[in-house]
């Protein structure tokens, strides 16, 4: 979650008609076709297990009452408790939450950790709210959804515009109802049972997967140029890790616009500038460009790390990156996927690229259940082992079946969940 005071843009670069559910349903169908799944299994695997829509009344600081709409959707729990983040954003809709919940089922399955998939969201503008209002919103939302949460039922985590503080309110409110239960949520501060490395995990994980991808493609990572859309939790740690590997970060964007420098963005100057001004634009030594321009820059690696549907049929022909690593969830629409595949642009899919976060959330959950904590070095080493194994599985499947990385990833993930459902005798 970024510093307060930053306005959140609408999905400025998305096509107005895109629905993120089309992304999950198309990707699922391609995998189900390859696996020869029957109609009943398809229905079972695509129908959300449980959907909760809640009214969230909040007394604002000016004394008025505002009612927000919130959701918690559990897509599938055949392989373990449902798992997935909670998003605060004005554009949250039930279809968005459904799609993100389903993507979590495939992500946890792909990296083979014992969870299912869920997602939550509240349609709100957190940047227009005070901390006290956000706390009241989070506590009220938690009190409305806590009946379906729990360490062995559904374990939330941070997502867009939520952070360790929001997870703390959720943990505290849940514990008021159920007794001290740190394993009810991940992404907590380390002082309250959070895991070392969780904050960095998604971005660092994405950088590890980019490294593996470049190695697989026989391209050097040191000196590679990177364009990065979204410089919040995921984007900022991905940028730091890739810069350490010798990449040149050509451009970065937040919701207010993007900046470009052919010499490479100085991250040591970028983060203080962003913290002080609330935006990336205005950074000394950079040129202001639009978010759309950033996506179409000539570069080696394009990393969407903001919102969904940003690479669509309207811009896919103009993308000039050699590879795309999807650190955001669902950034590429099915039409765009076909265009990118035809144009020979390798796409490392979201359910793999962004899986570092949920992997370390899994470690946080196990540490909480055991009340035994790990060193940071152990967290990162175990995360890397899981991500690299999943990457190898995807590459081998893609190669042997001559399919895209995305279809390979979905095929592996869907196969595991279908098998779990069958074993459990649904
Ligand atoms: P965040 O709130 O910390 O940061 C989001 C970033 O996106 C900010 O820099 C924001 O300014 C930018 N942004 C918002 N709207 C934009 C727009 N229209 N154009 C360009 N930039 C825009 O969120 P995050 O946690 O970094 O999540 C980013 C993405 O990664 C989301 O798709 C999320 O679902 C996914 N993800 C997050 C995690 C995690 O652990 N936080 C894990 C897996 C996947």
Structural commentary:
With 426 residues, the chain is of the alpha/beta class. Among the domains are: 48-183, Rossmann fold (3-Layer(aba) Sandwich); 201-348, Rossmann fold. It contains 14 helices and twelve strands. The strands form two sheets. Strands 9-8-7-6-10-11-12 form a seven-stranded mixed sheet, with helices on both faces. The protein has a five-stranded mixed sheet with strand order 1-2-4-3-5. Helix 7 (233-244) links the parallel strand 6 and strand 7 (248-254). Helix 4 crosses helix 5. The longest helix has 26 residues, at 376-401. The two termini are 39 Å apart. The model is unreliable at 1-12 (pLDDT under 50). The site of nicotinamide-adenine-dinucleotide has 31 residues, from helix 7 and strand 7.
